[in-house]
Amino acid sequence: MSSFFDLFDPTASSSSSEATDLNGNSTSSISSSSNTSNDDDEDDMFLSYEELLIKKGGSQKRSVAIPPRLQNHAPFVQHQQYSSSCSPVIDFDLDILPPEPQLGNIEYKLKLINPSKQRFEHLVTQMKWRLREGNGEAIYEIGVSDSGQLHGLSDADMTCSLHTLNQMARKLDASTSVLRRKALSAGRSVVEVLVRKIPDDQHNIEVRVAVLGGADAGKSTLLGVLTQGEFDNGRGRARLNMFRHMHEIQTGRTSCISHETLGFDQQGNVINYKYNEMMTAEEISDRSTKLVTFMDLAGHRRYLKTTVQALSGYSPHHAILVVGSGSTISNMTQEHLAIVHALDMPFSIVVTKCDLIPPDDVLFELKTLLTAVGYRKVPYLIANEDDVLNANAHQNVEQIVPIFCVSNVTGDGLDLLTKYLYVLSPGISNSEKERLEQEPIEFQIDEIFKVAEVGLVVGGLLCKGVITENVPVRIGPQLDGTFLPVTVQTIHRNKAPCRVVRAGQSASLSFYPGDDMPPLRRGMVILPDYEEEDTAYGSYFFQARVSVLFHATSIYEGFQTTMHIGSIRQTAVIVGIMGQTDGIRTNQTASVMFRFVRHPEYVRPGMRVLFREGTSKGIGKVTQVFPLNQKVK
């Protein structure tokens, strides 16, 4: 599997009767044309992106070639380098797949015809394990041997195998849906099936997606089209439902975090506000087996701190970087990309406004940026549904970057983006999730509201543990570092009431009116109501192992920076750098002692640190904390 921007090797095409197109799909026409004439390549010098798609694809699967005038545009990622560093590619257009992976949620089955009772129970246990690895989702390749050979099955055998697979899924209260089918010779075929099981304590599988990019890229419009089910009129009508304040409507710029949901049923059909006239957010959640929760983030530099806090505090599973066609990649877009990369977050790119200007120029700008030394990603243009499934197979390794070209006015490319969201996985296994649920409660507060007849309501992410209604907890830290007891009254998720929230889920909590509520602020946490008060305390001082991503000169003691740790956002000052007398520079790592300037925060070892000040950026992990009830040695 190679990228959209890879070049064909002339020597390879002359020695092989069949080449591979730029998205890793087998094509014989390219190699044969290379042995006859180069007239087509000369003509392609003057073709646009859309003309190349039409000419190279026609009614068949589209394969995009790079015109010679653009082949020297920055260094290219070689196919051999990419394939050696990534996990197996599930590409049906190749005659053979990689060997079956031992770990993960992908399973090969040559056939499933009339298994014995003992064999059937073994298959069910195996499916249960694959579902746990994929957080409730597993991919089955039917007609494929463990070595990856595509043998295929006859129609009768395939029908029987799919029936057995459905019985296995029903045994686990799971559902199946066919993703794609490949016809082989002699009437045989291979089928790829998605098996999905919703956890017993949940209504659906949820994926949090952060949408970011520069101002005027079309982020809010894109989300408005996806969640409302109606195309934009070209003047920003679709984005109005995403705005929360009057000044956002007047300026057309998002200034705060906006949440919206997109649902899918078992067959992959979209469930949004256009599903019926009376559809509400609660009904979307109830009807969906897969729920994508979008966070519309601000693109203007003035609101960068809000965007960074959302990425750090809500810990989205995936990020979508939106870029407008016809414009250069702005400094703000590059800033967002750098932050996402620093947080090790998988991401994809959506190029909007393709109905106005062909995306040729911006695609090659993205290619240059993504393949640079700091990123070394592989851009992968999505042209059809097979590309969607191939790209999704690489989300776990975080090496491939899918690129979608869409139009919010005509709807071009939105079906592929929707398909991608349907198969997108949260990227965390059920075993890891269950481990987090067994740990003590830690709820990070990111938003605070005051609701009439309810009182104070806090919103945020539950990092660990399980919270239920009427459970006593402690909230803090206060100015003296202590935590005060309160009781959770009600819980809301996705704009709907619920009784329980588990690790990895975002929610809003209200408290009993009779509780003596302390002054609340963003960055506070909710912890279990321990009997001993000394078990949780705020800290001014903490030590972290940090790496400087960029700084113009050197960082010394006394350097002040904005520190992001989960939902915490506060100025901190460096009071000590261990083992470095001449400061720390770009790409250097050191153990640093920080002190919060304003008030204590709850920090624990292992938490991820992101600090920034102007163009300076750094990342790291907390190694030691010094609570206020302890003296710094």
Automatic annotation (TrEMBL):
Region listing for Disordered, in residue ranges: 1-42
Superkingdom: Eukaryota
Keyword annotations from UniProtKB, A to Z: GTP-binding, Nucleotide-binding
Composition bias type Low complexity, residue spans: 25-37
Localization terms from the record: Cytoplasm
UniProt-listed SUPFAM superfamilies: EF-Tu/eEF-1alpha/eIF2-gamma C-terminal domain, P-loop containing nucleoside triphosphate hydrolases, Translation proteins
Major location category of this protein: cytoplasm
Cited InterPro entries: EF-Tu_GTPase, GTPBP1-like, P-loop_NTPase, T_Tr_GTP-bd_dom, Transl_B-barrel_sf, Transl_elong_EF1A/Init_IF2_C
Keyword NADP: no
Positions with biased composition (Polar residues): 11-24
Domain Tr-type G: 204-431
Family: Belongs to the TRAFAC class translation factor GTPase superfamily. Classic translation factor GTPase family. EF-Tu/EF-1A subfamily.
Name of the protein this chain belongs to: Tr-type G domain-containing protein
Organism: Aedes albopictus
